[in-house]
Amino acid sequence: MRAERPRPRRAIFRGVTGTTPVAAVGAALILLLALTAALGWQAWHLLSSHMARNRGITFGDPPDIPLAAIYPLGVNTSLEAYGSHDLDRVIDLAWAEGVFLWARQTFPWSAIEPEKNRFEWDPWDLIVSRATDRGLRVIAVLDTSPIWARAPFDAQNAHAPPVDFEDYIRFAAAVAARYGDRIDHYQVWDQPNIYPHWGERSVDPAAYQNMLLGAYRSIHGADPDAVVLSAGLAPNVEPGGRNMSDLIFLQKMYDAGASQSFDVLAIKPYGFWWGPEDRRADPEITNFSRAVLAREVMLRNQDGRQAGLGGGAGLEQPSRGLVGRPAALGFGQRSDPGRPNGESLGAGPWRVALAGSPGSRTSRPAGRRGRSAAGVRAARGGSRTTAHLPECGFLGQRGDPSVPGPVRARFLGGRSER
Asked: Are strands 102-108 and 137-143 parallel, antiparallel or unpaired?
């Protein structure tokens, strides 16, 4: 009798593809892991996008930071270009609607003290008198140097710093002593991180910090209630030499002890080619979000209690008749030379919500000394918003409830002043 051959065992479970149970479970695990990874990537993408869009924004009540919660809108001016009659007209035109409160005006040392210890205060006395009588708040930018104070190789560059910082420090004290009853805010120099604003030499954050500290002390000595602003740093991405990134320059200022040298940090967050909705915060990109990076430098240096101010910012809006592609900051060639150069979506300085200043629009105050402007309407209304940076602070930005806008400010006399 022949032995029966054993029959091969058949798998009890087989999938549609003929896989074994172990393989089926493995495939299911792989599918589950892939699905989990996809969901995780999507969640990470949404979270990172949310964090990027809201980087630097404080939600809820703003932090309690001195000097941050003030009326935010103002303009850069060169009022010395106008005579007595035209000065009144220009001021009335610029501020008649009650939108702007601040006038950031240069007080050039080179013109005010052409010879050592000989001061020429005209037309600055007139500017201060006419502006403050109308309820404007002047930010006095103490900039340039007279030829007698400069190094020989800087003879042709009025933007160069003096050889002896004590000369500038003495000048700053003289301005504060003369105008301390009418001016509260003083800015020490302008754009020391780029050429030609530090002369025929490499820019030097530590040297500027020394000059800033001396001026800070002398201004407060002459006007104890003064608010001293650091120089507005020009946004750029250069590593050093004639030009240095504003972020690198600021960090080096802190390395030299800048936290004790100013009351308000000034920046210049120009939009350049990018709109205010561009939320990329990248040291290699110069856009409005530069303000976020500057604030982060402050926080890294335990200086979060200081306020920040945008001392010059804007987006170019070419006017009709523009020929060619507009430049980032300049103006294209116009087909009609009789028309003034273009319009800007506002002109600084604006109180940027770097420090978490409220987004609400407050009434234009009469000023520390109680002056009010006859015929100048106070801009009122609006409600507090819970997002403070960069949702608020820039004139004409979409979604900003703090400004009556978009408001467009034509540069005075058809000239743009940075």
From this structure: parallel
What are the backbone dihedrals phi and psi of residue 126, each rounded to the nearest 5 degrees, phi first?
-65, -45
Nearest to 56 by CA among 364, 382, 288, 266: 288
CA 170 to CA 403: how far, in whole Å?
Answer: 39
Cα 51 from Cα 281, distance rounded (Å): 11
- Using left for φ > 0, alpha for ψ between -120 and 50, and beta otherwise, residue 122 falls in beta
Rounded-to-integer distance, Cα 180 and Cα 190, Å: 21
Q: Using one digit for the tens of pLDDT, what is the confidence trace for 366-403?
A: 443 333 222 222 222 222 222 222 222 222 222 233 33
| Domain regions of the chain by residue span | 12-53, 63-414
Which tokens go with 281?
């915060």
* Distance from chain centroid for Cα 111: 27
Q: Do strands 243-244 and 264-267 pair parallel, antiparallel, or not at all (unpaired)? A: unpaired
Q: Per residue in 54-89, pLDDT tens?
A: 676 666 666 677 777 777 788 888 999 998 888 988
**Is the preceding peptide bond at 365 cis, omega within 30 degrees of 0?**
no
- CB-CB contact of 114 with 120 (8 Å): yes
- Domain 63-414 falls under CATH 3.90.230.10: no
pTM, full prediction? 0.70
Instruction: State how far the Cα of 145 lies from the Cα of 334, in Å rounded to an integer.
Output: 34
